[in-house]
Amino acid sequence: MAKSENETPAPIRPVPRLPKGFRDIGAAEIREQQAMLTKIRGVYERYGFEPLETPAIEYTDALGKFLPDQDRPNEGVFSFQDEDEQWLSLRYDLTAPLARFVAENFDKLPKPFRRYATGSVFRNEKPGPGRFRQFTQFDADTVGAESIAADAEMCMLAADTLEALGIPRGDYVIKVNNRKVLDGIMEEVGLVGPEFATRRLTVLRALDKLDKFSEQEVLLLLTVGRKDASGDFTPGALLDVDAAERILSTVKNTQQYFVPSDDMNRAKQLDKAIEGNATYNTGFEELTQIHSMVRAAGYGVDRIRIDPSVIRGLEYYTGPVFEAELTFEVKNEDGQTVRFGSVGGGGRYDDLVARFTGQKVPATGFSIGVSRLQAALASLGKKSSDTLGPVVVLVMDKGEVAAYQKLTQTLRAAGIRAEMYLGSAGMKAQMKYADKRGSPLVVIQGSDERAKGEVTLKDLIEGAKAAAAIKDNKEWKEARPAQLAIPETDLVAKVREILARHET
Amino acid sequence: MAKSENETPAPIRPVPRLPKGFRDIGAAEIREQQAMLTKIRGVYERYGFEPLETPAIEYTDALGKFLPDQDRPNEGVFSFQDEDEQWLSLRYDLTAPLARFVAENFDKLPKPFRRYATGSVFRNEKPGPGRFRQFTQFDADTVGAESIAADAEMCMLAADTLEALGIPRGDYVIKVNNRKVLDGIMEEVGLVGPEFATRRLTVLRALDKLDKFSEQEVLLLLTVGRKDASGDFTPGALLDVDAAERILSTVKNTQQYFVPSDDMNRAKQLDKAIEGNATYNTGFEELTQIHSMVRAAGYGVDRIRIDPSVIRGLEYYTGPVFEAELTFEVKNEDGQTVRFGSVGGGGRYDDLVARFTGQKVPATGFSIGVSRLQAALASLGKKSSDTLGPVVVLVMDKGEVAAYQKLTQTLRAAGIRAEMYLGSAGMKAQMKYADKRGSPLVVIQGSDERAKGEVTLKDLIEGAKAAAAIKDNKEWKEARPAQLAIPETDLVAKVREILARHET
Fold first, then answer.
1. Residues of B with Cβ-Cβ distance to A127 under 8 angstroms
2. Number of cross-chain residue pairs from A and B with Cβ atoms under 8 Å apart
3. Which of A236, A310, A467, A478 has the most CB atoms less than 10 A away?
4. Dihedral angle at the C-alpha atoms of B129, B132, B136, B141, nearest 10 degrees?
5. Does residue B434 belong to any structural domain of this protein?
6. Is A153's CB within 8 Å of B23's CB?
7. Do A406 and A312 share a domain, yes or no?
8. Which residues, at least 6 apart from B420, have a Cβ–Cβ distance to it below 8 Å?
9. For residues B175 and A450, what is the distance between their CA atoms, to the nearest angstrom?
10. In 3-state terms, what secondary structure has residue B364?
């Protein structure tokens, strides 16, 4: 149509879109997630943790800044000012709010305080494939427990959780390290003090690659740097080769020590290499304790393994750190076969509450990345069965909507998932709608049927099978009719019968 | 201790606190809420709605501004800029994001599109008692259905949900009105056009008070204004008395029309009073349809009631509006006896999707205020039974932590909620801890018992009863000992036995 000249200008309409890094989640994924969260909650409860919910918004200073690898100090967190000009932030994890909660309520809480929490966290980071700015975590933490048994327990909790979700033993491993071990190793090569903070970080990042790269490549990352296949250059930690090799061998020896073996000479070698370093020795002793506790409780090296190459990003860890890794292989975005990798982790953070109170409150925790774990379960084919769509009551006669509504309510009152078609389209489109909803069956009542006190049930699942089979076997359709007329009084019983056939 | 002079200055520590209007939610309330959400979800699913989750953050322009009664245009919403300087906001309800989702995915969706959603919403408003800046809603919406049957269904959904939560029939009512009815009534007294927008709002607010104030007081609010007992003055809508009385009588007549009665003269009177007003007539006709549909489906006037005094705040409603009201009485903060009031509501909003697409997409929905409803259930005494705390395994000998850990894991592997005491305190403090956690029993193993392969179970619930009874009846304690030594191999069986005693 030609526009008339004195037409009012078209209103400016917003474009319906989401900011980058945010996403909508549909019914199937939500149902899977619900089932997952219920299972995780079951394990956390069994371990004696109690639920706690803190709000999404906190004072910025209360959260602190502990995000990994933020080049700019204000990055990583969504922040805004309150009416009184104080800065607020969206929580970026569930641990910082826990520290605030414990500091605020210390006297009232049982000590140790064991809580679990799940909810959305927000990162104001550059989104990427599978990397979102809002995602769900599921954490368990024990606050006020100095005992390394609390850390050992986190590792067992992690293993039990993955198995409860159906991940077979052998397809996952909980890797355990201790920050003090790495700190001691770095002390030994002179990387001590604030002036070496950046180089220590580069060393840690290099060691983190030990499960992906060859030793030779990690050595490059510890020294002069490494160029990858695409020509991209990663700067190195600029250690001399002796120091780099010493770091690598200590990491490897420490790892080997905890692998069951008759060759106890290794252990002696290890002790000599790092002898007298108090930081290392404390960390090593803590790893030994975790090792013996989990073994005593029946968790073998196939489930929980000491691995000094585990880094974990967050700056607040002070002792043991854990990583829950899925070891089976999947294709990555570039089509390469890779191990699925980390789906959660945690560690000990003895200083987080002290930020507020000045008083040290030892704490340790474990956190699951829910979406990532859900992706893992999907790639393992661990899906709960599809939910059937609702029974759809078709509207054959618009003057009789109240009658159709009543049929629908009768089904619902009997606990059957049902709806009346609420659009304005005809019979054919209504059938299409029922298909799109995944309805197992539709209820049809024309005026003739109403006069007779009857309804017709059309079994859409049988119907689809019959339609597919009809070329080969016409009789099949006749023998198992997908459509039947029944007295209205039998509605609930007959619908239940059909649903029972399809729900198994 | 005296401070030494060359001490470094104390670090500035953040105060652990939450911004006003935000709160932490403890274990008991979370468990109640979980149970509630499960029941609500059950009803919404039964009605054929599918879950959908949208993120907490949206583009500000996509959400639009539909908050009620905001004096300043930028108020009510938490907003901040993204890195590319576009404005983002936290969602203030679940309806505006649904409109964005539908506009964005229109072609892919089944029509009508029926979804439910639950999650936190955020209001940057002045918090008050029971008024928070983050709270949970639970919504069901049907998008793409012009049929008034969709609205009737929302009312039945609301009634069924409240009953599923255990609110007895008679203690709630779903009130139904239609914006067109009120618009028509206001047209009749000349309140038409943008210049009367503020006065129309004042009229609506006055009518909203009909369930709290006397008619005479509402009449004051419609005319010259009203001074309350404390001397506070509420300005009136400045109508002349005739107009005000006409509004009041039409509202009351409309209401009476739908109350079952033999006196049909009322209906005739009503028709005459407002004859020829198309807006009113359309609204009245829609109310009539809802009325007959819900009655046909068996919902009486005790559950769903037409009530033209219902207003609902949000500006985006275009037709039927609903209010789920709890009618039982509670004490308010001032100690006065009041009806509990609204726990949810909704209505038809035919223009929300058109904001994006220019194409009208009729829609209607119902939203529950979860915390408010939870408070209502609490005041009705509808609490699910208390959860028992975990079994606590005491640590009698710190050198044997691995053995205690193993006992704990044995219990957990059998599905029993259990934990080892992880603090550093002695026996007495450990017992206190178990009490504070609500533990039903503790597991004790000293070195003597370990040597004999035994453990001692101490039943804390029996123990407490015995301690209370001991003055009167010393033998009682002997007959039902709260403490028993058992072989370690019987641990799981005996613990189960004790738990079964307390879980009923």
1. none
2. 276
3. A310
4. 90
5. yes
6. no
7. no
8. A149, A153, B392, B393, B395, B401, B404, B405, B407, B408
9. 32
10. strand
Domain contains A250: no
CATH code of the domain containing A165: 3.30.930.10
CA dist A181 → A178, A279, A325, B429 (Å): 5, 7, 21, 33
Instruction: Examine the domain organization and report whether B366 and B434 are in the same domain.
Output: no
Which domain, by its residues, includes A466? Answer: 391-503
Which of A370, A422, A436 to mutate: most B Cβ within 10 Å?
A422
State the DSSP string of A149-188.
Answer: HHHHHHHHHHHHHHHHTTPPTTSEEEEEEEHHHHHHHHHH
Q: Which of A13, A30, A82 sits opposite B355 (nearest CB)?
A: A13
Provide the total of helices (H) and of strands (E) in chain A, helices listed first.
18, 18
Please enumerate in sequence order all residues whose Cβ is within 8 A of that of B218, keeping only pairs 6 or more positions apart, or say none: B206, B207, B209, B210, B248
Sign of the dihedral through C-alpha B428, A150, A292, B495: positive
Cβ distance of A293 and B48 shorter than 8 Å: no
> How many C-beta atoms lie closer than 10 Å to residue B60's C-beta?
19
- CA-CA-CA-CA torsion sign (B290, B295, B299, B303): positive
Task: Verify that A406 and A458 share a domain, yes or no.
Answer: yes
**Chain-centroid distance, C-alpha A208:** 21
How many domains is chain A built from? Answer: 2
Question: Residue B100: its chain A contacts at CB < 8 A?
Answer: 16-18
> Which residue is associated with the tokens 């576009």?
B86
Same domain, A42 and A131: yes
- CB spacing of B27 vs A16 below 8 angstroms: no
Residue A76 lies in a domain: no
Among B15, B296, B405, the residue with its CB nearest the CB of A149 is B405
The complex's ipTM works out to 0.88
Contact between A59 and B18 using a beta-carbon 8 Å cutoff: yes
User: Are B298 and B430 within one domain?
Assistant: no
* Contact (CB, 8 A) for A53 and B28: no
**What 3 state SS string does B266-316 have?**
HHHHHHHHHCCCHHHHHHHHHHHHHHHHHHHCCCCCCCEEECCCCCCCCCC
Which residues in A lie closer than 8 A to residue B405 (C-beta atoms)? 149, 152-153, 293, 296-297
Q: Tell me the nearest-neighbour CA distance from A408 into chain B, angstroms.
A: 9
Q: What residue has token string 């119907």?
A: A463
β-pair type (A304-306, A172-178): parallel
Asked if A356 lies within 8 A of B15 by C-beta distance, the reply is yes
CB–CB contact A14 B402 (8 Å) = no
Do the domain assignments include residue B440?
A: yes
Q: What is the pTM of this model?
A: 0.88
**CB–CB of A22 and B50 under 8 A?**
no
Q: A401 and A479 share a domain?
A: yes
Contact A53 B30 (CB under 8 A): yes
